[in-house]
Amino acid sequence: MSGHTCAGGSGCPQEERVVSKNRTVYLKDYQPPQWLVDDVYLDFALQPSATEVISTIRYRRNPLAEQGDALLLDGHDMELLSIRLDGELLMPERYRVHAGGLEIPAVPERFTLEVTTRIDPQGNTSLDGLYRSGGNYCTQCEAQGFRKITYYPDRPDVMAPFTVRMTADAADNPVLLSNGNPVASGKLDDGRHWAEWQDPFAKPAYLFALVAGNLACVEDHFVTASGRTIALRIYTEAHHIDQCDHAMASLKRAMRWDEERFGLEYDLDLFMLVAVDDFNMGAMENKGLNIFNSQLVFASPEIATDDDYISIEAVIGHEYFHNWTGNRVTCRDWFQLSLKEGLTVFRDQCFTSDLHSAAVKRIEDVRLLRALQFAEDASPMAHPIRPASYMEINNFYTVTVYEKGAEIVRLYQTLLGIDGFRRGMDLYFQRHDGQAVATEDFLAAMADANDADLSQMQRWYDQAGTPRLSVRMEYDSAAHRCTLHVSQSCPSTPEAEVKQPFLIPLALGLLRADGTPLALQLAGEAEGCGSSRTLLVTEAEQSFTFVNVPEAPVPSLLRDFSAPVILDYPYRAEDDAFLMAYDEDPFNRWAAAQRLAMRTMLAMLAGEAADVELIATAFSRLLADPDLDAALKAEALMLPSESEVADACAVADPGHIHEVREQLRVRIATLLQGELESTHAELAAASGLDDLAMQQRKLKNVCLSYLLTLKTGRVIELAYRCFLQAACMTDQYAALAGLASCDCAERKLALSAFEAQWQGEANVMGKWLAVQAGSSLPDTLEQVKQLLAHPAFDLRNPNKVRALIGTFALRNPALFHAIDGSGYRFVADQVLQLDRMNPQVAARMVRALMNWKRLEPVRSGLMRAQLQRLSDAGLSADVGEIVSKSL
Ligand code: TRP
Ligand code: ZN
């Protein structure tokens, strides 16, 4: 390989690791690009282990940037074969190749650069850049994968139209795809063929995509509001082609919804979606050619659960919605990631909420936010939704940037109303279509379109941590006045010790003792208006007085979770039970149930008397409430997770928490056995894919999971019967997951029957791995270790890693936190192995070891020791950042 420069390719991974380690990128260092790109022409000669890429790119000096005539391009993990500048072959002394890229010291004002590189898709186990999955070629370029394909200014504020030509073996790769429109294709005489694609929309390199291989396709079409017909195609391996109907229907619903809700139409004549088995995340919004983790495409009632159906629809929507929020208007730099992700998550939340139950959707989103994002905000990786620095950008595709980001976008809608929010969106597109912008531009569009001063919103972008909103009520029975004293605070996080007050919309209502709502009239107002309203909390401390309040009310606070804060109000257990029964706001009925359950578990943890009767009675009343739909009952019955309980403890003992939570479930199940059994029986026949059937199955399976805590022969028999008779994956999976934590013969029978039935379906086998890794039986770690050698497991496949190792590390706290440290050691072992293949996935797993400071001393020491052990090994930048920030 002499004569070729190895720039940190597979032959010299150490070099790359050392260089990218410990290098922090700062938002404050942002500079506009020195060089702009007029157009990009890429020519791929596809071969599994040696693909040659010729990129022909026209550069022009950016008049708005600093002077200087050096061209700096990003690139690594490639072999550089040649460089031509305006046709002239450059000798090695005319340029410099280093670990992160290429520098050409003197270039003219305008020029064309032709660079030839050679890459190895087959050997690319990072699944970043051009790689192979299931014998097909595909790409993943967000955030910085394009620089593993050719040398380029790989930053989102450099936008250009792309033309892509590819040649490949025709028999192995009948399908050749890239962004935009197909413009030409043909056969070559050596058994190869070619195709050329053109994307007329200027885009950043992270939205580039190429797919080639042997793929079948389902085709449909969509007629836009303005009457254009768009061809829709979903590509997958042939044996999955009959599992794409739900994905196609979801896509059409998303296209219609974006027109109706935001007036946004699709802009090309063709929309393609490709499903691949090996993918680091959920899906990717490449222009006109979305690439999906096959888990988020394939569905039929036999292989996908109801939750899978809903997430497939949501993610198809999410990626489709990116076409406007992400692609047409993109990010200036990666610090602005939440500009597209927070906004697009908010849009997909509204989509699901409009199509299904809004209350259930809100509850599920908040459950996720509280369980994962609040924990991240309290961890060593805490960061604002617009971070000020990062070491590895891939580590910032987080629940904070996505889910908290969506909550901040929701705040605008809460403050401005649906119509005001829409005006802001319209102005945002009017101003910024075709541009790469910052979160400040979004804020300004919202403010300007509504003539509102939203400057305090900026703090949500700059300050990390979960604010605590404390409310105290004072009732003056003589004056019939009720005053709420509100104060806010926010803990220190790595980026800032002291926090400025946030703008917090506080939605609330006041309930009379008989459960009816009061009309709300603030002091100074002429009359009461409505029973629910939103106060604006802007200061560290503020008071709000309501008048004409005839009796001391129970306040229903933070309705619909009007801001991402921790609410602190001295509710008594009876208040929670009362709000569970009477609150007008379904979200707050759920929140009260969660609070009551949390209060009960915390009392049990402290060894205090816990009023289990009260919670059981409240649950029983909910179950019997004819006005409440089945899904809301199910949500209310699901106790806060072990990790949420751990977050509520100053020092967590995960073993004790698991015990107490299980104990509470057993006691509730004992008290309510009759009702749980009859509810289960009544709902047994729920069938079909409509919302009602899905909601009924959800409640039915929550009942089953409670009953199984009793572990009697009778309930095990019931669960096994449900397993055998299940007509859909929802029921089959629920029964299997329940049995997986019971030490009984039926457990083994069910696991092997499931394996025999589904061994040909990779994604279903992922569920089989996950239920075993999530089991609360004492030998779970032993089982997990054995499953590493099972043919259904593959360390190179992220779905399988998440199912087996991820479930154990992140969703099975009792076993992961085993007091002998065996869980920590196991996860560290796996991280070390994985890191050599796929740093992005390894970095997800290592997060399980982050929070040693919040554990009791024995576990704390054991976990820290594993972090230290990792830190002493050679790590990727991805894992290295998390380990170094945790220690
Ligand atoms: N932009 C993708 C989304 O819709 C996220 C994504 C997909 C991604 N694949 C990735 C991010 C790989 C980083 C690395 O949310
Ligand atoms: Zn996204």
TrEMBL record:
One of its GO terms (molecular function) is metallopeptidase activity. Residues 112-207 form the Aminopeptidase N-like N-terminal domain. Its EC number is 3.4.11.2. Residues 574-887 form the Peptidase M1 alanyl aminopeptidase C-terminal domain. PANTHER family: PUROMYCIN-SENSITIVE AMINOPEPTIDASE. Belongs to the peptidase M1 family. This is Aminopeptidase N. The gene is pepN.
